Amino acid sequence: MSERAYSELSDDDLRERIVKHEWDQFQQVDNEGGRANCQGNWPTFHQMRLSQFSVWPRELLESYADDLDRADAEARNLLTEKYGRMMESTAPEDYRRDIAPYLPKLGLERQERQERVIRQQVAWAKDFRDRYPTLGQEMRRLRTADDTAQDTSFETYLRGELSTYSLKTLGLYEKMVLFTASQRRNLTEETLLATVKMAGYPDLDQAEAAQRKATPTA
User: Fold this and answer.
1) pTM more than 0.85
2) Which of 82, 152, 153, 215 is the most exposed place for a label (fewest CB within 10 A)?
């Protein structure tokens, strides 16, 4: 789809198009042991991914939509690459043997840029969890050091995702993160606010209270 064609879509329609495109690629991801349950859960996938894209500016949305289109044209699957890169932490031997040789190489400068973004986003996620502990319990583990073969942390997931972006998309993503930080805003908080609103809550405080009431105590 051309950039001109993107311009004919509203922001909401473009976000929906991106989520559907990711979902289509997600259906083609091969998992050891067979198809994962989450690959059949469109409502949750839709809510989580749409929440993320709800805080993205238009230019970044268009660039990532173009990444997905280019991946199709090049017979690549960005979702396969994302989950494959996560295995560098969760299954390192399998990653080195079966996955790394087939992934695009990332230079040192690129990796350093990504890690700066990741440090900021991990800090935001920690701040959010400190202020909304019950909602925070529903999030991924925070750091790569906490990864297991079954559970992938927020840090590792983000590293995998950023590694699939084109240089243009990564640059625009960096710009968004730096701008958000300069305004003393929290991108995790803004994304989770969009998530709870989709679930019917007016704000994070009410979502936290409802979740706390529904969570059994020991």
Assistant:
1) yes
2) 215
Higher pLDDT, 188 or 217: 188
pLDDT(3) > 80: no
Distances (CA, A) of 118 to 173, 177, 204: 11, 10, 23
Query: H/E/C letters for each residue in the chain?
Result: CCHHHHHCCCHHHHHHHHHHHHHHHHCCCCCCCCCCHHHHCHHHHHHHHHHHHHCCCHHHHHHHHHHHHHHHHCCCCHHHHHHHHHHHHHCHHHHHHHHHHHCCCCCHHHHHHHHHHHHHHHHHHHHHHHHCHHHHCCCCCCCHHHCCCCCCCHHHHHHHHHCCCCHHHHHHHHHHHHHHHHCCCCHHHHHHHHHHHHCCCCCHHHHHHHHHHHCCCC
Please say if the pLDDT value at position 130 is more than 80.
yes
